[in-house]
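re: ur question from yesterday

yeah so i grabbed the chain u mentioned. its 417 aa long if i counted rite. heres the sequnce exactly as i have it in my notes:
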Amino acid sequence: MKKFSLKKIVLASAVVLSGPSSNLAFATEAFDKESPWMLGNWSGKRTALKDKGYNFTLGYTGDYATVLDSEKGSGHSNAYADQVNIAVDLDLAKIFNWEDTEARINITKRGGNALQNEFDALNGQMSQVQEIYGRGQTFRLTELYIKRKFFDGKLDIKAGRFGETYDFSSMDCEFMNVAICGSQFGNWANSPALGGSDWLNGPVSAWALRAKYNISPELYAQVGVYEHNLDNLKRSQGFNLKMNGDGVVIPIEVVWSSLVNHLLGIYRVGYYTTTFKEKNADDNLSNLKQGVWLHAKQQVTSFKGDDKRGLSLALQVGAYGDRNNGPIKDYQTIVSTFKGPFNSRLNDEIGVGLTKLTGNDKYNFAYDSEYNAEIYYAYHYAPWLTVRPNIQYVSNIGALESRGDAWISGIKFNTSF
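ran it thru and got these structure tokens back, copy pasting raw so excuse formatting
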């Protein structure tokens, strides 16, 4: 393991093992297991700032992965990738008396390396075993927007810089494998896997406008317009603010929330298209890219009378219309999570997920399908630290039967300072 990787893992472990100290008042506040922040409330200063409209967050995510076994490779390569983000949410009603108005600034820094770069048998994998790696390991302006509600909250307008998946086809990111973590639609949107320019899952941002209309308390519809600008993807352009794109991405979505026996479900159906032209697999210019998605997440049981505990199921299905433009033509993801499996661990969680990525035979005639699976146990030490050890399995690496399979083990850290 590289020195920087070991250091970060040791530091994270030291935080867990240190626990509260009765000798120093600051240490007690800082490592309070009931606090939402590792560094505490700064003697009440964080709450005081939030009451005035300034809510600061500092987060850290780390993904460590190592090869357990591989059909086509030998050795036990490992890699560590991470991300730091610092953000501030501004309640402009409190700061400037702007009713129903808020703003957000979020800056991220990614670092480390991917296991695919260390282990040849995983090179060319459609997915990645570390979701936090990618889009250039550098500083980026990930969010910079203002949002306001009109007509008693019926209409919600958001403008500034942000990616599509913050609002469209959104899904929780609890797993470490990219193909199971978060929204899948943007990962494979008619462009080379994980480097595509059509749809931005983050940390890359683009100039954008999103309008959402609440039809009822349970139902809303939304539409967005996002600048397509390849400069935003460059490692040196993390803070690019120019408006020199070659077109726009237009997503449309309807979202329905339901309560079934007091258990929450969220259902999304959407469509996107574009206005720019791009070279396809035949080296011809192609336009009017499009795709559709259906995402659903439903808690199906409670546990021992507690609705916060129990089994939830999630499904993601998506397909892309122009099969000449990307290596993946469709995907299917199914996830099962169980929160609060033990009476002594009410906030822990067990998760199992599987994704099928169907290769586009027009892009490569040899493509079949790649399968990614993961199981994790989320140890919720405190509101500010969750550790998720996991086991992953990848079959038909790169959607090619000849590439075989691999078993991976990993640990994912989520920390809020």
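noticed a couple things. Confidence is low (pLDDT under 50) at residues 1-28. also The domain at 3-416 is CATH 2.40.160.180 (Porin).
anyway ttyl
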